[in-house]
Design goal:
CATH class of the largest domain: Alpha Beta
Low-confidence stretches: 1-70
Bound molecules: flavin mononucleotide
CATH superfamily of the largest domain: NADH Oxidase
Strand order of the largest sheet: 6-9-8-7-10-12-11
Radius of gyration: 23 Å
Structural class: alpha+beta
Number of helices: 9
Oligomer: single chain
Shape: globular
Largest sheet: 7 strands, antiparallel
Length: 292
């Protein structure tokens, strides 16, 4: 019998009455998203499972097909264990952080931000706050009035992903997070403060270790090259420039300092972010408060 988390609100029926063997395979989405209720599909028996915010409740459904259904001891034991330890495991392996609404009007003009922008590499150890992080992420790829994103994308194919290597943000535990622009939220992908390993991956540049956060922009080239072929590679590089500049200017506009970092070992950065083979890190932007 195989249990697979498939999507929210799915109820599955099956006519096999006495399942004999249980294996549980949490999918990637199960580990990464707990913001909504999900259901388990169980082949070999009908069980409805609800997973929400780290807690799992399960109930056996009885309907016409199950008039003579006798709950198997094994399945009940499994469900008990799943609801007890599964919930614990999920609560501790996934995190979902809703970011505060970003501001759509600031105090500094675009011209002033352009005039003041420069690379800042000396950061104080004062933390950033969630409003500032929210603003930076929104500037990178957030939803805008048109319904699209703050940076243009060839063919609106959006090959870029945004990660935050967070070490010193008030109200946010040190970890690596992936930005979900649709929900304007963060999803924890790796636990712990990874600024040290990221700085090592960036040839030991100490500002990467000292900055409260580093935003890492990655690309899934295939999303663009599928349509544009070789030329798509050029488009992806152009896009990362757009996103990078948005972050740099937004940082200035909210009185933060930032430095773009392009010198790093790709494979090491991939390990820090725990990303798959088809995703490439392109740019790191370290952000913080400039040391006075
Ligand atoms: C593509 C790119 C890669 C860069 N990589 C690094 C880097 O790895 N480390 C660093 O300290 N600065 C890096 N920089 C920042 C440049 O050194 C900086 O922009 C340049 O010295 C001009 O200074 P300014 O940004 O203050 O105008 C990079 C800039 C760009 C555009």
């Amino acid at each position: 019998m195989r249990f697979t988390l498939i999507s929210r609100r799915i109820r599955v029926t099956n006519t096999v009455k006495k399942p004999t063997k249980a294996t549980f395979k949490p999918s990637r989405s199960m580990v990464s998203s707990l913001s909504f209720a999900n259901f388990l599909k169980i082949k070999g028996g009908e069980v409805k499972g609800i997973i929400s915010q780290g807690a799992i409740s399960l109930e056996i459904q009885r309907d016409m097909e199950y008039d003579n259904f006798m709950p198997d001891v094994k399945i009940l034991t499994f469900l008990f264990l799943l609801s007890t330890f599964g919930g614990f495991m999920l609560a501790h392996t996934t995190d979902y952080i809703q970011l505060p609404e970003p501001s759509k009007s600031g105090k500094m003009t675009l011209e002033e931000a352009l005039y003041l922008r420069r690379s800042v590499r000396e950061f104080s150890d004062k933390p950033l706050n969630l409003n500032e992080l929210s603003q930076l992420l929104w500037a990178s790829q957030g939803k805008v009035k048109s319904g699209r994103r703050s940076a243009p994308s060839a063919g609106a194919l959006y090959p870029l992903e945004i990660y935050v290597v967070c070490g010193n943000v008030k109200g946010l535990s040190p970890a690596v997070y992936r930005y979900d622009l649709k929900k304007h939220s963060l999803h924890k992908v790796v636990d712990g403060d990874k600024r040290g390993p990221l700085a090592s991956a960036a040839l030991g540049q100490y500002w990467v270790r000292n900055a409260p956060v580093s935003i890492v922009i990655t690309a899934v080239f295939e999303r663009t090259t599928r349509k544009y072929g070789e030329r798509g590679i050029r488009y992806v590089f152009m896009e990362v420039g757009h996103v990078g500049q948005n972050i740099l200017l937004q940082a200035v506009a909210i009185k933060l300092g930032a430095v773009p970092v392009g010198a790093f070992y790709d494979e090491e950065v991939k390990r820090v972010l725990n990303i798959s083979e088809n995703e490439q890190p392109l740019y790191i932007i370290s952000v913080g408060r400039e040391k006075q």
